[in-house]
Amino acid sequence: MSGRAGTSDNVITAHADVVYRGDGLGNRVSVFPATCRSGEHQLGQEGYRAVEHGGLVVVSCVPCATAHPGRHAWVLRVVGAATRSAELDDLPYLRLVAHAPNLRD
């Protein structure tokens, strides 16, 4: 999997696969990066929007959507069925988040 997201012949590629965990009831939960793609914000504090479409989930930072239009979102590939809940955690995405400000579209 590439560490970059972008378009090639109208195909969007992902930064990474969605990470999943099980909750106390055995339900599958999506885990998204807690730090925005620009590296400037914590999504849980500043606000985010996650939209799944066509096997990809786009996790957008609300403040960066205006300030950094081309670099405001993580694109993650969905593996398996969609989940009903999600949480934010940088730990599973440490390598990705560490390079966030340097990623190109």
Which structural category fits the helices and strands?
alpha/beta
Q: What percent of residues adopt helix (DSSP H or I)?
A: 10-25%
Radius of gyration: 13 Å
Beta-strand content: 35-45%
> Low-confidence parts, pLDDT < 50 over ≥5 residues?
none
| Number of H- or I-type helical stretches | 3
What does this structure look like?
By secondary structure, the protein is an alpha/beta fold. The protein has one domain (6-102). It contains 3 helices and 9 strands, in the order E-E-E-E-E-H-E-E-H-E-E-H. A 4-stranded mixed sheet has the order 3-8-7-6. The chain has a 3-stranded mixed sheet with strand order 4-5-9, with no helix packed on it. A hairpin with a 2-residue loop joins strand 6 and strand 7 (56-61). The protein starts with 5 loop residues before the first strand and ends in a 7-residue tail after the last helix. The mean pLDDT is 86.
What are its keywords?
105 residues; alpha/beta; four-stranded mixed beta sheet; three-stranded mixed beta sheet; 3 helices; 9 strands; 14% helix; globular
Summarize the structure.
With 105 residues, this protein is an alpha/beta fold.
Show the helix and strand layout.
Layout (H helix, E strand, L loop, with lengths): L5 E3 L2 E3 L2 E2 L1 E4 L5 E5 L10 H4 L1 E6 L2 E6 H6 L5 E5 L8 E3 L5 H5 L7
Parallel strand pairs: 3-8, 5-9
Antiparallel strand pairs: 1-2, 4-5, 6-7, 7-8
